[in-house]
Input
Amino acid sequence: MYRARAQILAAAAALVASGGLRALTMASLARKSAVAKATVYNHFRDRDDALQALLEAERNRLIAHCAAVPQDGRLVAAARWLSESSVIGGLRRHDPAVLVSLADQALSESSVHDVVREWCAPDGDPDAALRWLVSFAVVPCVPGESGESAPGDQPRL
Output
């Protein structure tokens, strides 16, 4: 059962990355994940439920990725991950209004603030750090690469 759900979420990620939300349908999930449409419905009520599960899985991947990085490098690692995420990139290209809405939602979630607070320096500003990170989701730019300045460049966070 877990394997089918993982296949469906991987298919959802690929669909959103390549075609945005328009590409994400229950039928396309079944086709892309090579499972029956009923199997998709066994795991997700509808497309929005599948999207929420995908976004939660992406958030968990980001947190796990940053947990493997020393504390003083987690904000930069998160910014890089957000800039390079294929799912966020698909939303950025195909559904920018949705991405902005998701960014606004992240800015208001206390659980997101708690995670970013853990990544900040003890004297850092988690609210500023979160706004800085959101900028990497909306405007892709990898911090410290090729002489480009990242959105807001890394302040002492």
In short: The first helix runs from residue 2 to 19.
